[in-house]
Structures are given as C-alpha cells and as structure tokens.
Write a structure and sequence with these properties.
This protein is of the alpha+beta class. It has one domain: Beta Barrel (Porin), CATH 2.40.160. Helix content is about 15%, strand content about 60%. It has 1 helix and 10 strands. The protein has an 8-stranded antiparallel beta barrel. A hairpin with a 4-residue loop joins strand 2 and strand 3. It is elongated.
Length: about 180
C-alpha cells in the first residue's frame, strides 16, 4: 500500500525536477527557441492513465482531452484542458472523471516544454468535484507525423480527496494538432 504512494511520489519528484530544469533552460536558452506566437485552437491529447490510491486501489483507463492554448511569447504559453476518462472504483463500478484545468507552459526550446496546471476533476460517482494539480513535459516533433501527431507527453496529476485518500494519476500520451 505504501509502495504505490512512494512510487508515485518518486515519479512526481522526477517530473518536478524535469519541469524545474526546463524552466531554468527557458531563461538561459531563449536564443534557441523558435515557437510562433498565436492561438492553437485545434490541439488534443490521447493518453493512457494509471490512477493509484494510497489505500491500494488502482484503475487504468484512457483519457481524451481538448487542449487549446495561446502562445504569448516564443518561450511562454497559456492553455486550457478539458478531458474525460472512465475509472473503476474498488467495487469495479465504472464512473466518469471529468477534468478541467488552466495551464502555463514554459518552452525552453522549440521541441521541449514543461507545463504546470491547476483546476478540478469531477467524479460522476458521488458527484464530487475536488482540486486537481499536475505537471507534464512534452517533446514536440519538428513536423507533425501523419499530418497531425505533433508531440509525446509524460505527466503526473494529484487529485485531492477527503478523508486522507490520495489519488495519483500518471499519464503518458500523444498530442494531436490540426
């Protein structure tokens, strides 16, 4: 039971360190950045999700999200995330988890970005909405593969729960842009 929590904390610490390193690089390496400013409205994300709880419960699913953003400088972007997935609880009852977040992304290089996000996640079972915070790192290809696959993503999100339960969500996926 504690192993999962320690594993998630270890993964979170590595993601956080990677984000901090990319933030530092964004300040000192701005000359290597070549990101165009403007709106990117047709951005989506597809990703498997592992939800691990400190009580030993776990659920694996697949998440889709809409991720528009505004690139305000060649090294900075602000975005929104609206996503949905289906999880199972300990009794194997399926329920929807709906996520909505605001995000800030630092782009230290045209191919790399680090993002911090905050918002909420609503679970349809029990109708509860709780805070959700997370981070991700992404590698963006020089040109889209197959005309629309533009990035690979690794991230961690923490869903705040009452009564001491901890929900760690590990997400690995691909980004699509049209």
């Amino acid at each position: 039971m504690m192993i999962r929590s320690k594993t998630a904390k270890y993964f979170w610490s590595k993601i956080l360190l990677a984000c901090m390193a990319l933030m530092v690089l964004s300040v000192i390496g701005q000359s290597s950045v070549a990101k165009a400013s403007g709106f990117e409205l047709l951005r989506f994300r597809l990703q498997p999700v592992a939800m691990l709880q400190n009580n030993g419960a776990k659920s694996y699913s697949f998440m889709g999200s809409y991720d528009p953003r505004l690139v305000v400088a060649d090294w900075l972007a602000f975005g929104l995330h609206a996503g949905a997935t289906v999880f199972k609880d300990a009794e194997t009852t399926k329920f929807w988890a709906l996520s909505y977040q605001g995000a800030i992304a630092l782009i230290p290089h045209k191919n790399f970005e680090a993002e911090l996000a905050g918002g909420a996640q609503t679970w349809t079972k029990g109708g509860r909405t709780k805070p959700l915070v997370g981070s991700k790192v992404a590698y963006e290809f020089d040109g889209p593969l197959l005309g629309f696959l533009d990035r690979v993503i690794a991230g961690y999100h923490y869903h705040f729960e009452q009564s001491g339960r901890q929900n760690h969500q590990i997400r690995l996926g691909i980004g699509l842009k049209f």
